[in-house]
Amino acid sequence: MIRVAAVGDIHMGPESQGVLRPAFETLPECADLLLLAGDLTRHGTPEEARVVAREIQDLAVPVVAVLGNHDHHDERPQEVAALLEDAGARVLEGSATVVTVGDTRVGVAGTKGFGGGFVGRSAGEFGEPLMKEFVRYSRRSADALRQALEDLDEQGCDVRIALTHFSPVPETLAGEPLEIYPFLGSYLLAEAIDTAGADLAVHGHAHAGTEHGITTGGVKVRNVAQPVIGRAFRVYHLRVREQAAAGAGRGDSERLEKGAPAGG
């Protein structure tokens, strides 16, 4: 089993320094890696990014992150990403990384993603140039995610995870106003995940949403926005491919473990 800890939308600022660190320091006891699903800061300033960096500095497990819309607000996402990377995180945007856990290769493909809506009620690439670019941006993000997942498959990863900020499915948005669904995610992300294949998809962004969802192709989706999970992180147990095949018919390949409370 691979133990994947995940959380998003922690929205840290100067006065929240140290809030998550005690819980993060327990990660080696329950998880093999930590995924951060975007909106790590409030306004995307370097000052706020340094707070997050200190929370994850020198953790005993690998940290993989994507940025969220809040992390772009100050229009310095490269600086935010660089500060997190200096603290040891691997920050993905249309790219992938491989974490080795014992003899198991865990591949994580990540992108912030974007909005646009879901099948039957989605934005189209038509009309004004700004509207066309909105949809094209979503498509580029999804295409990059698909390519990153396919690259991980070619590298022979035993487990593949899709990490985004925006949601790939509407199910994990349940609880949010229907009017804002188009701004919370895009079906294009789910298409990319189903086309390339993955063992788990993790996202944030939907603070009033629901934790559990699934793509049309059967990939489990988890909304790990901190207001949803109500913890410092959740841990998901994933079987590697050989184990999943050997255990076919013996129950779910993913088990949810109780997460750590914020603040220790």
How far apart the termini lie comes to 25 Å
Number of strands: 14
| Series of H and E elements | EHHEHEHEEEEEHEHEEEHEHE
Derived structural class: alpha/beta
Note the main sheet: 6 strands, mixed
What does this 3D model show about the protein?
The protein has 264 residues and is of the alpha/beta class. Helix content is 28%, strand content 25%. The protein has helices at residues 21-24, 27-30, 46-56, 77-86, 129-154, 187-196, 226-229, 241-246, and strands at residues 2-7, 33-37, 63-66, 90-91, 95-101, 104-111, 117-118, 121-122, 159-164, 200-203, 212-214, 220-223, 233-238, 254-260. The longest helix is centred in the middle third of the chain and has 26 residues, at 129-154.
Task: Please write out the topology.
Layout: E1 2-7, H1 21-24, H2 27-30, E2 33-37, H3 46-56, E3 63-66, H4 77-86, E4 90-91, E5 95-101, E6 104-111, E7 117-118, E8 121-122, H5 129-154, E9 159-164, H6 187-196, E10 200-203, E11 212-214, E12 220-223, H7 226-229, E13 233-238, H8 241-246, E14 254-260
Parallel strand pairs: 1-2, 2-3, 3-4, 6-9, 9-10, 10-12
Antiparallel strand pairs: 1-13, 5-6, 7-8, 11-12, 13-14
Offer a quick outline of the entry.
By secondary structure, the chain is of the alpha/beta class.
Keywords:
264 residues, alpha/beta, 6-stranded mixed sheet, 8 helices
